[in-house]
Amino acid sequence: MGQKVNPIGLRLGIVKDWESRWFSKKEYAELLHEDIKIREEIKNKFHHAGIARVEIDRASDRAKITIHTARPGIIIGRKGAEIETLRKSLEAMTKKRIFININEIRKPDLVAQFVAENVAAQLLRRISFRRALKKSVQTTLKMGGQGIRISCKGRLAGAEMARSEWSREGRVPLHTLRANIDFGFAVAHTKYGAIGIKVWIFLGEVFTQKGVAQNTVEAEA
Predict the structure, then answer these.
(1) Cα 200 to chain center, whole Å?
(2) Own/partner long-range contacts of 31-38 (Cβ < 8 Å, ≥24 apart)
(3) Closest of 56, 18, 61 to residue 38, by C-alpha
């Protein structure tokens, strides 16, 4: 039937952890929308910094934000000017004390979100989608990924009719819950229309609770 489940959401509490960690009964909706706005603000301000994910930890009137990025220098700025500006804008928006941590991703080619955004950037530069997919697959496997699948949907190469193309190498066991699979999604807004890119990367299997933390940050080691 083509019913798909987000591979990260399926593995929450098993081999994946939540990106927002807080609890509230009365203010749940308000805090949820605040999280969405925080992530949108960071993504829009540093769309070229290779941000993989943004984690938010809340405690009463404080929030600790951890940004996982491939280019930390862009976010920090000269003498920390950029990160200080970001902190002040988020505090003005949320009316809470904000603490920002930057976590550098040392192997960005093993992060699905980064790979998806990289393919989208290549499509915007009018590079052939087949070439972009093939190059991304080869780079990820070379960096140590055990399997990768990339799917593109839309008016590829400016065709009149939209279609779907995909490329896969190695193993991508979506039904195995202990499999550490990273998922990323990006949209390339070309002159022909929007092209969606989905990326699944298999980073290995996790067997122990201790292994969860080790394998989850494998791409950052």
Answers:
(1) 11
(2) 31/58, 34/94, 37/93, 38/63, 38/65, 38/90, 38/93, 38/94
(3) 56
Tokens, residue 196: 């969606």
User: How far is residue 169's CA from residue 172's CA, in Å, rounded to a whole number?
Assistant: 8
The predicted-structure confidence for 184-201, as pLDDT tens digits, reads as follows 999 999 999 999 999 999
Cα 88 to Cα 100: distance, rounded to the nearest angstrom? 11
Task: Quote the DSSP letter at residue 17.
Answer: -
Which domains are delineated in the chain?
Answer: 7-104 (3.30.300.20), 108-220 (3.30.1140.32)
Residue 129, CA distances (Å) to 40, 88, 138, 171 in order: 27, 40, 14, 22
pTM value is 0.85
Q: Which two tokens stand for residue 218?
A: 């494998």
Strands 163-170 and 147-154: antiparallel
Across the chain, the runs of DSSP E, i.e. the strands, are: 20-21, 51-59, 62-69, 97-104, 147-154, 163-170, 179-190, 193-205
CA end-to-end span of the chain: 39
**Residue bearing tokens 């904000």:** 98
Question: Tokens at residue 187, please?
Answer: 């949209």
pLDDT tens-digit map of 14-42 = 899 999 999 988 999 999 999 999 999 99
